[in-house]
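Marked as duplicate of an earlier ticket. Keeping the data here for the record.
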Amino acid sequence: TLRWVPGHCDVLGNEAADQEVKCAITQGSSLCKDLPPLLCTTLPFSKSALWAAFKKKIRAAAVAYWQLSPCHPRVSHNIPAKLSPFNSTLLLHLIMQLITGHISLNKYLHHIEKVALPHCTKCNSASPESVNHFLL
C-alpha cells in the first residue's frame, strides 16, 4: 500500500528513502545484475530530448553538406561572418535571394513571366527593378 508522506517530517522510512536517493545520485545506479529483471530495461527517453538531439544531428549534417557544396565557395564570402548558414534561416534566405537575384523584384518576376514589364513602378524609370536598383 502506498501512502503520501509529507517531506521533511522526520518519518523514518521517508528519511531512509531520501538517503538512498542521495546515495544513488552521488554514487551511480546499481548494476543490472543486482536489480530485478523488470528494472534492467532501459528507461524511455524524453520526447523533447530526442527531438533536440535529432535537430542537432540534422544541423551538423546540413552544415557539412553545405561546406562540401560547389556553391559554398562562391556564396560564403558574401555572407557576414557572424551569420553561419544555419543561425538565422530567414535572414540567410533573404541574403541568398539578394545575391542570386531571385527575389520578388520586377526584373526577376518578369523573367519568370509573373509581371508584364521589368521596370520599377515606384520611380517610373525605364530601368529594370533589379537588386542594385532597389538597394541603390
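See parent ticket for discussion. Helices lie at 12-27, 47-68, 72-75, 89-100, 106-111, 131-135.
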